[in-house]
Design goal:
By secondary structure, the protein is an alpha/beta fold. It contains 18 helices and 23 strands. The radius of gyration is 25 Å and the shape is globular.
Length: 543
């Protein structure tokens, strides 16, 4: 099978027993193994919630909102897909129930159903199937993996499962299979692994008209062959299709664990795909070797507003892992809530750190804490990296404490400020609808010769992803540049300031875009790589 294959095979990944078992990691790991065999693979996420996209969701609700090059606000699992496969995703890779109903109702309003009664079956299920099959229509992929969010048994997931049931007949034998991720809990009091939750989960899937072809069983302990046989017998699958997914030290171990369990071989056999290539995971193994055998360690403070839920900063965490491995350095993250920072305790809270990252976010909560942190690292020559709102806080801090603009602020938090150094973008002035209306997606940025940014990227122009409404106010640009701020990155189309840096500082960089969204295992983002390197140098100078 070659990369020119025009008729793809489809794999559907469902989950049962409980949420957060790691469907996205299993899907990404399988995709990585198939890709390493020379096949062209992509992954799609179907989310059962009614929001049209995650863009208006609070990070506490759904974690990070991942943004693609084409400006789609998507589920954070798309970040896993890109980090594992090193292949860009797009709007078509993430579809919600809300988007499905939105599309169907728009068609109904236009009269496209010719006056028929619009129903879940066939109209909603047809729309779901269309979104699944559209990826195949591109002709670019040998295999399309579709992850269905939520748990089997959830009311919200039923239309998706029904659509998959219908597709089994539409696509024909050997053209699709279903992988069900489940849990084999260990009861300490009984000293036993229990299969009953998996049996019930599979039964619920069968009630929806689907028989899983492969079971991937999350477990804290190895599954004895007798237990695998029991699962196979009661769940109506071949024993070779019962795959152990034991808890791993890192998510990046999972492709190797799945290879050991021969998941990719089983999938190829069941889809009737002849492929005699061994999975080439050489680069992946070298990455793991560096990750697990660091020669240095740094502690970096991540200052944010949503630190109680680590998934709100998922891409930043993974970018530090990639950059740490590239530098053969273990990056320890110290989580610091910006609301807990003040000028009085800032030294105590940031003491001992080798670098500080001020994270993105929205709204006024915790803003003054972020500004205090920026001032402390600026004055004490501690490596600093600000992303989106973090960059804007660096601008406000500099305006207040260096330019002497005492009440300088962003009009997002203080609409009537006398010195709006951060202001609403002109293109956003008349926007009233919140969903999907920010400046989203990839935009070009020209880099200044001789700047830190140019040394980091080694390019004249870059493309990075954005998600914001407010920007640096160019009215104040000359004052900033006269006093030591370097505007090292600019969008030439609208003169938007994209990157600021500080002269005579070991590492002080703020970016309006989100570099964490483009960091992958095989291509760690250069800003994170150089930031970690700067933290290592700072740490070595402290000794």
């Amino acid at each position: 099978m070659s990369g020119k294959q025009k008729t793809p095979k489809y794999i559907f990944v469902t989950g049962g027993v409980t949420s957060s078992l790691g469907k996205g990691i299993i899907a990404s790991s399988l995709a990585k193994l198939l890709q390493a065999r020379g096949l062209s693979v992509t992954i799609q996420k179907l989310d059962p919630y009614l929001n049209v996209d995650p863009g208006t969701l609070n990070p506490y609700e759904h974690g990070e909102c991942y943004v693609t090059d084409d400006g789609a606000e998507t589920d954070l699992d798309l970040g896993h897909y890109e980090r594992f496969l090193n292949v860009r995703t797009s709007q078509i890779n993430n579809v919600t129930t809300g988007r499905i109903y939105y599309n169907v109702l728009n068609k109904e309003r236009k009269g496209e159903f010719l006056g028929k009664t619009v129903q879940v079956i066939p109209h909603i299920t047809d729309e779901i199937k269309r979104n699944i099959l559209d990826l195949g229509e591109t002709g670019k992929y040998d295999i399309i993996i579709t992850e269905i969010g939520g748990c089997v048994g959830d009311i919200e997931s039923l239309p998706f499962l029904e659509s998959v049931r219908q597709l089994k007949w539409d696509l024909g034998e050997h053209n699709m299979l279903t992988i069900h991720l489940t849990l084999i809990p260990y009861l300490t009091s009984a000293g036993e692994l229990k299969t009953k939750p998996t049996q019930h989960s599979v039964k619920q899937l069968q009630e929806a008209g689907l028989q899983p072809d492969i079971l991937v069983c999350r477990t804290e302990h190895s599954l004895p062959i007798d237990l695998k046989r029991k699962i196979a017998l009661f769940c109506n699958v071949d024993v070779r299709s019962v795959i152990e997914a034991k808890d791993a030290r890192t998510i990046y171990d999972v492709p190797l664990l799945m290879e050991k369990e021969k998941l990719d071989q089983r999938v190829l056999y069941m889809l009737d795909i002849y492929n005699d290539r061994e999975a080439d995971l050489g680069e992946w193994k070298r990455f793991l070797g560096r990750l697990k055998n660091p020669v240095a360690q740094v502690e970096i403070g991540l200052i944010g507003k949503y630190v109680e839920l680590k998934d709100a900063y998922k891409s930043i965490i993974e970018s530090f892992i990639h950059a740490g491995a590239e530098n053969e350095c273990k990056v320890r993250i110290k989580w610091i809530h910006s609301e807990n920072l003040s000028p009085e305790n800032i030294q105590e809270k940031l003491d001992g750190l080798d670098g500080v990252l001020v994270a993105p976010g929205f709204g006024e909560r915790g803003i003054e804490g972020k500004i205090s942190a920026v001032r402390y690292v600026r004055e004490n020559n501690i490596p600093f990296f600000g992303i989106c709102l973090g960059m804007q806080m660096a601008v406000i801090e500099f305006a207040r404490n260096v330019l002497g603009l005492e009440n300088a602020h962003s009009t997002e938090m203080e609409p009537d400020t006398d010195h709006p150094v951060i202001d609403l973008m002109e293109s956003q002035q008349s926007v009233s609808i919140k969903g999907g209306t920010m400046r989203l997606g990839a935009y070009e940025c020209a880099l200044k010769e001789g700047s830190l940014a140019k040394r980091i990227y080694q390019r004249n122009s870059i493309s990075e992803r954005h998600r914001h409404r407010w920007e640096f106010n160019n009215t104040f640009r000359e004052d900033f540049e006269k006093n030591g701020i370097v505007i090292s990155g600019t969008n030439t189309e609208n003169n938007l300031v994209e990157i600021i840096e500080l002269q005579n500082h070991p590492f002080f960089l703020g970016v309006q875009f989100h570099p964490e969204l483009k960091s992958t295992v095989l291509e760690p983002h250069p800003i994170f790589v150089h930031f970690v390197k700067a933290a290592m140098e700072y740490a070595s100078n402290k000794v």
